[in-house]
Design goal:
By secondary structure, the protein is of the alpha/beta class. The protein is 55% helix and 9% strand. It is built from 15 helices and 13 strands. The strands form three sheets. It has an eight-stranded mixed β-sheet. A three-stranded antiparallel β-sheet has the order 1-3-2. A hairpin with a 2-residue loop joins strand 11 and strand 12. Helix 1 runs antiparallel to helix 5, helix 5 crosses helix 6 and helix 5 crosses helix 7. The radius of gyration is 32 Å and the shape is flat. The two termini are 42 Å apart.
């Protein structure tokens, strides 16, 4: 995919350049006044006091001249940047037009590469043919030639568009570097003015509006680079992972470091930013969130201790004790997460200790998804939070280890995505609102994995949803697209659709398995009376019954048909007949089944292992 999004708004920056010029004009007027005051005083005032004033006024005037020259230089640099970014945007539009002329797919700012040419040439006839057969063969030959020519046209267009985009990216990076260099130079010049501190002091005096304006201008010049970077980055965040990736790649090293240092909360969960950068930002967040929680815990404990027996505040004490326990559990979760990410090759892609009503959220990767050929994302279900995310990480590692054993020459990354608000209770798990609210975030996260991937070939991405996590996965695939090659459901109460074809991937890339003793088959019958009637079978299967609902037309659960039912149209993931709801990582059948999909060997027949 070619990303043509360009960071920056030349129009807004030109407006800022005009403001900078206005500061320069004001500075020049003040400096002129200093020179004039010195000149007038020189003829009417003598003595040591006059000499001191002359020296002071000369220094102030000289500094004013330096400041007055600084602002036009900054404005010129901004104008130059704006012109260069306009050119970059024009080149990107040119690349998209080349792609359209070459009959490539162009979606917003993304140019899709042509799919591999797989059409087979028409076979040469070996025997006599009728007139109709000859005509059909001729049509087949002509169709093959036309398809081959069209594919060649698309490849040529993609190559030309790719070259244009690469050239534009080089111009974009140079424009940003030149602007940062100019701003840094202006800041250095500002610091080098001998009496700059005196101008700042003048700005603090309410009787000196000109000095105040100059002090404000100096602050603006010093901070503008960071503010501009943040503004561009926030604009990219609103447009999605592809825009974020393009924006990040256009920034200079100093801009990137400044964003991570000043705004880790923006960078830490920015889908499309490289894994190593997100990890750095989120480790900073974890540290600051821990400090904030510890301070809050101390305050709550002080509140509890201040309530004396007989105060008549038992209800308030219970509230504070409940709050203290919630904070304590969050801190324990942070401890587990911190210990896990300190292990080699583990990365923190998201952390929020106060989300989900205080239960917390986290996203942890084992292996770098930016450089892995196969990437697995596991989405846990009800109750998942900071307290058990590490348990899911350990379970997912078992799948990754099996997958690596099946494909030892391949690289793998495993992600545990506890980054949505999961249902806190089984009763809450009967509502779809959690999946609806979290589905877009999961979709964007998966899209971000595509945008930040660094290998020439796209990775084989698999998303596994367990329990309510399968509902979250299904809603994301149905409503927003999952940006994955394969989808796996285990122990599912339904995924929001009644057929695998509605999930945005080929049905033969959808797998589902439900263990024979999984209570999910018993506990989540459809609440819709219309799902029951002649020909329907919603009775849960038992281990001795064979495949799910062999005699019924529908096996409806809380959120649509059971994806493990043959009528759903997906493929069966082997499971153990006696496995329970949390046993999918404990038995060879399901472990090997998930591993084959993750290792891109899902088309192979499953071995008949008994766990």
């Amino acid at each position: 995919m070619l990303n043509t999004w360009v960071a920056g708004n030349p129009g807004a920056m030109r407006s800022y350049a005009e403001q900078v010029r206005a500061y320069g004009t004001g500075t020049e007027q003040v400096a002129t006044g200093q020179h004039q005051a010195r000149k007038e005083a020189a003829g009417e005032w003598e003595g040591s006091a006059s000499d001191a004033f002359q020296n002071w006024a000369a220094g102030q005037g000289k500094d004013g001249d330096g400041l007055a020259a600084l602002f036009p230089a900054v404005a010129r640099a901004i104008d130059c940047w704006s012109d260069e970014i306009d050119t970059v945007k024009s080149r990107m539009e040119q690349a998209k037009q080349v792609a359209r002329d070459g009959e490539l797919t162009v979606l917003a700012d993304a140019i899709q590469p042509p799919a591999p040419f797989t059409q087979q040439a028409a076979g040469r006839p070996t025997g006599p043919m009728s007139t109709a057969d000859s005509a059909a063969h001729a049509d087949a030959v002509a169709g093959f030639d036309a398809a081959k020519a069209l594919h060649a046209k698309k490849e040529a267009a993609f190559a030309e568009a790719h070259a244009t985009v690469q050239q534009a990216r080089g111009m974009e990076r140079a424009a940003h570097e030149n602007l940062v260099r100019a701003l840094d130079g202006s800041r250095a010049n500002l610091e080098g003015i001998p009496h700059a501190a005196e101008w700042a002091k003048a700005g603090a005096q309410p009787t000196s509006p000109a000095g105040a304006a100059l002090a404000e201008a100096a602050t603006v010049v010093e901070n503008r680079a960071a503010e501009a970077s943040r503004g561009m980055f926030e604009g990219a965040l609103k447009q999605g992972p592809a825009a974020v990736s393009a924006c990040w790649s256009s920034l200079s090293a100093s801009q990137k470091a400044d964003l991570v240092d000043r705004y880790p909360q923006l960078v830490g969960r920015a889908d499309g930013v490289p894994t190593l950068v997100r990890h750095d930002a989120n480790v900073r967040l974890l540290t600051s969130q821990r400090a904030a929680l510890e301070a809050k815990y101390r305050a709550v404990q002080n509140g509890i201790n201040s309530i004396k027996p007989g105060d008549g505040m038992s209800a308030e004490k219970q509230r504070l004790e409940s709050q203290a326990e919630e904070i304590r559990q969050a801190l324990e979760g942070l401890d587990k997460v911190e210990k896990k990410i300190q292990q080699p090759d583990h990365y923190l892609l998201g952390i929020d200790a106060t989300a989900s009503g205080g239960r917390g959220q986290a996203i942890i990767a084992h292996g770098n998804p930016d450089t892995a050929q196969n990437v697995m994302t596991t989405v846990p279900g009800t109750y998942s939070d900071l307290g058990d995310v590490v348990d899911y990480v350990n379970s997912s590692d078992r799948v990754m280890q099996r997958a690596h054993a099946m494909a030892p020459g391949q690289s793998f990354a495993s992600i545990t995505y506890a980054g949505y608000e999961s249902p806190p209770t089984l009763i809450d798990a009967s509502f779809e609102k959690y999946a609806e609210q979290g589905s877009k975030g999961l979709s964007q996260f998966q899209e971000g994995l595509r945008a930040s991937h660094q290998l020439d070939q796209p990775s084989n991405n698999t998303v596994i949803g367990h329990s309510y996590g399968s509902t979250e996965v299904g809603y994301a695939a149905r409503d927003h697209g999952l940006h994955a090659n394969n989808i796996v459901f285990i122990g599912s109460p339904g995924v929001g659709v009644d057929h695998a074809s509605e999930l945005g991937v080929p049905p033969d890339h959808v797998w589902s398995g439900t263990s024979g003793m999984d209570i999910i088959d018993y506990a989540t019958p459809s609440p819709n009376p219309a799902d029951y009637g002649p020909g329907d079978s919603n009775e849960p299967p038992m281990p001795w019954d064979g495949p799910s609902n062999p005699g019924g037309d529908h096996d409806d659960h809380w959120f649509g048909m059971n994806p493990s039912d043959p009528g759903f149209g997906g493929r069966e993931l082997p499971t153990n007949a006696w496995g329970w709801h949390g046993d999918y990582w404990s038995y060879d059948e399901s472990l090997n089944g998930m591993a084959r999909v993750v290792a891109n060997q899902g088309q192979q027949p499953a071995p008949n292992n008994q766990g």
